Amino acid sequence: PRKKHRGRALDEEDKDFNRTINSARAAIENINQRLKTYAILGGIYRGDIDDHQKVSKIAQVVSALCNMNLNKH
Question: Of the four, 34, 42, 45, 47, which is 20 to 30 A from 15 by CA?
Answer without folding.
Answer: 34
